[in-house]
Amino acid sequence: MSWGIELWDQFDNLEKHTQWGIDILEKYIKFVKERAEIELSYAKQLRNLSKKYQPKKNSKEEEEYKYTSCQAFLSTLNEMNDYAGQHEVISENMTSQITLDLARYVQELKQERKSNFHDGRKAQQHIETCWKQLESSKRRFERDCKEADRAQQYFEKMDADINVTKADVEKARQQAQIRHQMAEDSKADYSNTLQKFNQEQHEYYHTHIPGIFQKIQEMEERRVLRLGESMRTYAEVDRQVIPIVGKCLDGIVKAAESIDQKSDSQLVIEAYKSGFEPPGDIEFEDYTQPMKRTVSENSLSNSRGDGKPELKFGGKSKGKLWPFIKKNKGSTPEDFSNLPPEQRRKKLQQKVDELNKEIQKEMDQRDAITKMKDVYLKNPQMGDPASLDHKLTEVSQNIDKLRLEVQKFEAWLAEVEGRLPARNEQVRRQSGMYDGQPPPTVNTCAQDRESSPDGSYTEEQSQESEVKVLATDFDDEFDDEEPLPAIGTCKALYTFEGQNEGTISVAEGETLYVIEEDKGDGWTRIRRNEDEEGYVPTSYVEVYLDKNAKGAKTYI
């Protein structure tokens, strides 16, 4: 099977076919190039998608990823990022191993094709030139033969004419001989040219053209083979990433299997547990008995007898609301006293850990400065040791400040965890029990309230609106009541910003009157003057009770 033998007369068709083959190769290159672009675009979109759903640093969203389900989702995002990387590998390998390689091969193929067909056209032009020479020699031989015949006929005519001189006859004879000689020469030339042409034509059709067409056939077969190899490479590029893609998918499955619903439920408890006990039963208040009653902290009473329920507050404190009443949100106190005990403990522990990390960082910096100072002392040319004294002093002061902060927060943490003896340890208020004095404000003690996810206390809208309606009636009633007597004094150990309703702000070192001691909820009711009273954290003040004061209690 040879194109040179079977297709010896199909030069133009072979030229068209080989051009078509190059077009097919370029079309395949374009296909692979577009596929690589799609893979790269897909990888970019996957990376952007993974990045979009990654938790933002130092945000509430990052805290949510402590749950196993969220951790599994984060693992899925990371695996998808690796998955995208494999599509980038596909794009890169297709570009380097197929697109660029085939592009270089096409240029070589075009050059080779051009050279082969140039040789073919050159052979065609040579055989055409030989044919023209043969035709020219043939026509000249034919012309000379005709001229010789005419010269012979003219000589014979002249020789037969008696009126022609002998000289004219001789001239005609000589002319005829010349023409015959020219005809013979043309015949010999034509014969040589014909023999040469036949030889050239035989070489053209049996040597030159078969050789050129054989090269073209081999070139075309290499093109077809190269296209097949590229298609095989195309599949292998995809196949090579399958194991890694499988690992990515296995990672997602493993992450899904690691989800522990019980662990997540426990984390919810740890995140939102208040540490309070549910309120006890409310005792029955018998209004049929003519007796002097004190106001219950857990009851709704009808002081005016008109059937309209009201909230009873003690003294002039407008902050003692029903346990489920929503309080105004203010800035978070430094000791997190606005939080339930369990949440407060977690926040304090977190703060202590952060401060310890800062202390360690400052200590490392101090050690580094000290080492540098020692180097300067040993090698004065490297620097002045005195230049580091200011920085060393500054770092040491920072460490002292941080240690004081740690001590303060550890004291609050110890109080919450029960490591320090509380002054009101023996005085525990039971829900629903009567006492001779009004209870501390519920705004600062969250034991009877619900906690929202962010640590603030919430209530049903209907309850809140009801209290707002009743509040105006309470104001007039409270104005008529006598203020509670002072049962001692206290000195503020720290500055407290009372931003929540029912609290009062105090300055460090300030002396105030105590009108209601701590009843086990961590708050003490104090008074600055007749119009200013409220609650402060017991840990912020040092209390001096008057043993002879009415209502004063003795600690065991």
Features:
556 residues, alpha+beta, five-stranded antiparallel sheet, two-stranded antiparallel sheet, 6% strand, disordered C terminus
SSE run:
HHHHHHEEHHEEHEEEEE
Major β-sheet profile: 5 strands, antiparallel
Rg, Cα atoms, Å = 56 Å
Low-pLDDT residue spans: 291-329, 419-480, 550-556
Q: Helix share of residues?
A: 55-70%
Gross morphology = rod-shaped
End-to-end gap:
118 Å
Structural class, judged by helices and strands? alpha+beta
- Number of helical regions: 9
Mean pLDDT across all residues, rounded?
79
Identify the strand order in the major beta sheet: 8-7-6-5-9
Q: Count the strands?
A: 9
Strand content: 5-15%
Explain how this protein is built.
It is a single chain. With 556 residues, the chain is α+β, with helices and mostly antiparallel strands. Helix content is 60%, strand content 6%. It has nine helices and nine strands. The chain has helices at 3-6, 11-52, 60-63, 68-160, 166-257, 261-272, 341-378, 389-417, 461-479, and strands at 300-301, 310-311, 450-451, 457-458, 488-492, 511-516, 523-527, 533-537, 541-545. The protein has a five-stranded antiparallel β-sheet, with no helix packed on it. Strands 1-2 form a two-stranded antiparallel sheet. A hairpin with a 6-residue loop joins β6 (511-516) and β7. α2 (11-52) packs antiparallel against α4 and α7 (341-378) packs antiparallel against α8 (389-417). The longest helix is centred in the N-terminal third of the chain and has 93 residues, at 68-160. It is rod-shaped and about 190 Å long. 22% of the residues are buried. The model is unreliable at 291-329, 419-480 and 550-556 (pLDDT under 50).
